[in-house]
Amino acid sequence: MSSKLEAIGIAKRYGDAVALEATDLAVQAGEFLTLLGPSGSGKTTLLQMISGLVAPSAGRIEIDGRDVTHVEPGKRGIGMVFQSYALFPHMSVWDNVAYGLRMRRKSRDEVRAAVDGALAMVRMSEYAKRFPKELSGGQQQRIALARCFAYRPSVILLDEPLGALDKKLREHMQSEIRRLHKELGATFVYVTHDQDEALTLSDRICLMNQARIEQVGTPADLYDRPATRFAAGFIGHSNLLEGALDESRGPSGEPILLAAGGRIPLPINAMNAIKAPNGKGASAAFAARHTLLVRPEAPRLVEPASGFVDGTIADVVFFGSDTRVQLAMDDGSELTVRCERSLSPRVGDKVGLVWDPYRTTLLQS
């Protein structure tokens, strides 16, 4: 399948500062791809080069197989939605949405049909005569989306469009954006630093760190099978248990990690992902330190000495649908467990922990 949008060796430098290392990224038609990462990771720089607002230092951008690297933004067939809304305060809602169509010299009938259709899509038809100052933040964001959708671009770029909204409104607008993406069938490239937003919205996530791509995959891939320690720590809440591999195996031949004061069984195939440091022999892998990712929902509380590891309950926090238990492990490390509300863990209790080894991921530190 050919890509709708492709960045090929795209890079950006400002003098000696690297804003984005040489990067390859392909986005399929109709896909919702999120660029996720901390501040300074390069995600906004990449989006701005796709849009044409920033010229790359190297590489090229293709849309539908056409090189648009040096094509001005308004001629790339791309729609852009900003966090700041960028609405004209002196224009009505209707005229704000119509502005881009008029600039493209569409006929009066075409403008009317497109604006009315876009306002209906974002459920703002009744606000057509109002001005931006008369709208809430969420309503202004809907209008910014409608203005972009009105001329039906095949690629839509969204730069942290929900960043200025409160939590409840953000969650509502996430649902709206998912609905609109399905209705439009357009290709969305979305920038955010909010991991929950990325997991909720995306078909795939491009996780970025230190001006490069760390990992690309589905939300489930990044959550369940992170490729690096950074990916494991950035996506979701993580328990990262550090230790060394035991040269002896478990009763079923499974590898054993010595960590958190216990002997932790790993999946039978866990060693396939482990590379010996610096290209040395397999024995070097046993001498190296490794990190095991255990998500909070994986462990189950059991009696002391009957699990993989033991710990003491240091804190219990009520989260509504579940309870989070903070454990002080026997080796001094900490571990968080998500428990059902029916359990009644108490601070100071000694407990053991057990989990399905196949719900964990072994990383090399």
Automatic annotation (TrEMBL):
It comes from the Bacteria. The keyword Nucleotide-binding applies. Keywords: ATP-binding, Cell inner membrane, Cell membrane, Membrane, Nucleotide-binding, Transport. InterPro entries: AAA+_ATPase (IPR003593), ABC_SmlMolc_Importer (IPR050093), ABC_transporter-like_ATP-bd (IPR003439), ABC_transporter-like_CS (IPR017871), Mo/tungstate-bd_C_term_dom (IPR008995), P-loop_NTPase (IPR027417), Transp-assoc_OB_typ2 (IPR013611). PROSITE patterns: ABC_TRANSPORTER_1, ABC_TRANSPORTER_2. GO terms for molecular function: ATP binding; ATP hydrolysis activity; transmembrane transporter activity. One of its GO terms (cellular component) is ATP-binding cassette (ABC) transporter complex. GO terms for biological process: quaternary ammonium group transport. Pfam families: ABC_tran (PF00005), TOBE_2 (PF08402). This is Vitamin B12 import ATP-binding protein BtuD. It comes from Paraburkholderia phenoliruptrix.
